């Protein structure tokens, strides 16, 4: 199903900016990614579920660029340990996605993303180094990452907190982050397509049920160029950010955006 009425001058303008920032976030500053997804929610206000689905193919394009640049710096053992809890989170998130109203969507995403970031700030401040190696902490972060990524592409906040707790340097952070999100975002496409059909079957109106449809992939073609441009710019920003402030900078950007999502969904 293609819904061309969603493609308006307003949605295209905001969408171009969001697509550019997605490119920047994937190759340079992952903290910008949550803000880019927030812009896409604004671009399709009233259709937040659809906006969340529309972002996914764009993220995958950015992921491909990031994997190309940083794949050699990936920590495969860290990813292997995260796979089981993330899979659980994806399933739980998909179940929630099938039930949520558009009006509830942003609040849930903002609360989940900001809560794990607040915990990471407290953990770092209090010096709770042992927490980062605990299995419950890994499972909690993995499940939250899976749930937030399927609900609103907000797992960047959770992954930033978890990778920060593991003491990854700038290169390993980018490499692990790149491969992690490529795998996760590809796995989301069948889940989001299925969620659209399930929402239709359980009684949502056709317009409200849309998470991913033909229009999603039309927008992917439209926004392809700004993503590549953003990736080119992001690569240069990455090189310019000093090692010692890189991870704190990413965490701060994610936290500000997550709090803004919560506040804007309440006010």
Summarize the structure.
The chain is mainly α and 267 residues long. The protein has helices at 9-27, 32-43, 48-70, 76-99, 102-126, 135-152, 155-165, 170-201, 206-209, 214-222, 224-240, 243-266.
Q: How does this model look, in words?
A:
The protein is mainly α. It has one domain (4-266). 82% of the residues lie in helices and 0% in strands. It has twelve helices and no strands. It has helices at 9-27, 32-43, 48-70, 76-99, 102-126, 135-152, 155-165, 170-201, 206-209, 214-222, 224-240, 243-266. Helix 3 packs across helix 10 and helix 6 (135-152) packs antiparallel against helix 7 (155-165). The mean pLDDT is 85.
List the topology elements.
Blueprint (H helix, E strand, L loop, with lengths): L8 H19 L4 H12 L4 H23 L5 H24 L2 H25 L8 H18 L2 H11 L4 H32 L4 H4 L4 H9 L1 H17 L2 H24 L1
Helix pairs in contact: 1-2, 1-3, 1-11, 2-3, 2-12, 3-8, 3-10, 3-11, 4-6, 4-8, 5-6, 5-7, 5-12, 6-7, 7-12
